[in-house]
Amino acid sequence: MTPSSAVLALRVLDVNDNAPVFSQAEYTVRVPEDVPVGSVLVTLKATDADEGLNGQVKYSFHKISDRASELFNLDSETGEITVKEDLDFEEISSHELKVRAHDGGELSDTAEVMITVTDINDNVPKISVRSVTVREDMAVGSRVLKVTATDRDEGPNAEVKYSFFQIPEKFDKTFKMDPESGEIVISENLNFEEHEFYELVVQARDAGGLSSHNLDIICWSILLPYLLPKGTRIWL
């Protein structure tokens, strides 16, 4: 009896025994708040050692705040995170996103994305003062008022300098302003008979913008007679 032999071809089928793996567990991004809508901030990458559907990776947000979901978009195919709306450093300066990479089965991996929004000089200083009344006998060097301005930016972008803007020549020597503190002082004697009203323009300037504001200074003479209301009777 002659022995016989046969060649058997065995095909090993892939099973989904490998989970996707991100190239890094954490991604850190710094972006200025004026980054254009549609810009790609970061591209996440995960690989899967399986084949076919078991090795196809899709991306989705795993944990994200409501506001971040309005600001950022994640492409499920490419892993690109893009900007959907204008960012605002003054509103929220950092966002923490958790992204999930999953294959054709139920296996997955997660990665953290930290997006830090950096400040730009997009807010001008705002001055609130409008008018002030002074007596004409106030001594030279007396403080009239201290102008203050608020700037919503941070750091050097929020550092404010003060000055008069195009002050009339006739008032140039009457008042002085400290550029650092915003303090306005009298620099020469006031005279109600010459000027009973001063209109000045105050300017607060930051690193890249400025804000001008009218300032009315009303001079009050201590020699003005007190006028009684009409019909008032006086008994001596």
TrEMBL record:
Stored InterPro entries: Cadherin (IPR039808), Cadherin-like_dom (IPR002126), Cadherin-like_sf (IPR015919), Cadherin_CS (IPR020894)
Protein name: Cadherin domain-containing protein
Subcellular location: Membrane
Protein's organism: Zonotrichia albicollis
Domain of life: Eukaryota
Broad class of where this protein is predominantly found: membrane
Protein keywords: Calcium, Cell adhesion, Glycoprotein, Membrane, Repeat, Signal, Transmembrane, Transmembrane helix
PANTHER family listed in its UniProt record: CADHERIN DOMAIN-CONTAINING PROTEIN, CADHERIN-23
Biological classification of the source: Eukaryota, Metazoa, Chordata, Craniata, Vertebrata
Record's bilayer topology term: Single-pass membrane protein
Any Pfam family the entry gives: Cadherin
Sequence ranges assigned to domain Cadherin in this UniProt record: 4-22, 23-127, 126-208
GO cellular component: adherens junction; catenin complex
Gene Ontology molecular function terms on file: beta-catenin binding; cadherin binding; calcium ion binding
One GO BP annotation of this record: cell-cell adhesion mediated by cadherin
